[in-house]
Amino acid sequence: MAALKEIPSWCWSVKLEDKAQHLIDLKISCPICFLFDVVFIVLVDTSDFSSTNMFINSHCGEITISLNSSFNPTKTFILYVYGLKTIISSTGQYDSVVCYGNKEIECKEEIQTNVLLKEIKEDIHLPLLSTVTQGTLPLTVHRQPPSLYRLDVNTIFTDEKHFIVFVKVKNQLRCYNVSGRCLNKPFPFELPSASSVQCKVLCACRQQRMNGRFFVTTTVSHSHVISFKTFLSHVDTYRLYNLAIAFGTRKVYPNMRPIQYFYRNKSVEYFQIILNSNYLKGEMRPYLKSNGGEQGSVVNGRLPGLFFSTYIDITTNMPNPRSHYGPIRLYYKAFVMFNHQCNLYFADFYCHYKRHHVTIILVPKLSTHNNFCRQYLTELNIFHNPYLCLRVELNGTFTVLANMDVTVEVFYTEIINVKRALELKYGFLEETPTIGKGFAKPSGTPKNPDCNICNLK
């Protein structure tokens, strides 16, 4: 018995005529379970990576489109086809990519090819991934906690353009269009927290439209793929805190040790400017936290502060004699900075392939940064927590305790007057040999994304 030929439930015939009057006959098909409103096609000429974009009404059974002078491949071209389902929500209108197919096609006088659209997966291709461009479009993603994200093309065009935006998150791909001389607006949909996101923008000129059945544009420039991570929600930060607790409870009791000083290493020039500048007058001033550690942390680029370390060698009761961050070390008495007039917040748990780190935000109760920390971070009891706490002694004095099973980093949000600390003897400077580069990257070092201990699942 002859095998039955499987006939696709949905099928479109799209005939494309280029400027050399070659006819490209595309048979596009997909299972009927993938219901969508628009067929979006991107044709990429591999000789110069120019591209043509087509939006076609999915109810068109057969259609012929003249590409005129916009497309004339000489060797091969790449075909991307996306099935778009239009979504109208309270945050705006966009298209969800329901199915997808791509194919590399060799140019001939007559081309007939079949493209089967399949369900999208993690490895779905965004169009124009090559770094060879006809003019890279500068693109920035602005993030505002708790969950606002805005795309900004750092260019204003003299005439109106058509921006086609792709946003890939988890196993979903979304697309939306913006017309105007620039692109500067929030995403028209919510993004899940603690998720990796990829964005790409095509900037195009409109060419032709036919009775609402289709319109064709030519790409004039496009961005590289921009990657970022969405903010951790308050619940996510608490989950990260629980991962840190689980890591610490491998031992019955945390290795809490009394410490006298917090310390911080920087360059010679850094401290010379602080101590000798008429502008700074001995003050070490906070600056916005870099993107080091957890990329989705709400404190990155939002909260100003100064990093201090607490770690001491349990055999010598001294800090590491060498430093990754500079040859001059400031020691600052811990209780002067951390006392019962302060609040503590857990901010991060991460590693750089070796030792695990915990970041604790230290904020005086009267600080203006308290509201921000309380809104987004997990608050710790200053007298009872497994990382940094105060112990009340029998004579009524306080001792600062820090956990040595992890590296506890203190991010202090206020100005510190180094000159006054040196004069009043609750701080001192010391030279330390450096290892590695001897300085920290201004952008910070991201956490190890492959660690099974400190990454949220």
From TrEMBL:
Residue span(s) of domain Phytanoyl-CoA hydroxylase-interacting protein-like C-terminal:
254-420
Tell me the InterPro entries matching this sequence.
PHYHIP/PHYHIPL (IPR042868), PHYIP/PHIPL_C (IPR045545)
Spell out the protein name for this chain: Blast:Phytanoyl-CoA hydroxylase-interacting protein
Species this chain originates from: Mytilus galloprovincialis (Mediterranean mussel)
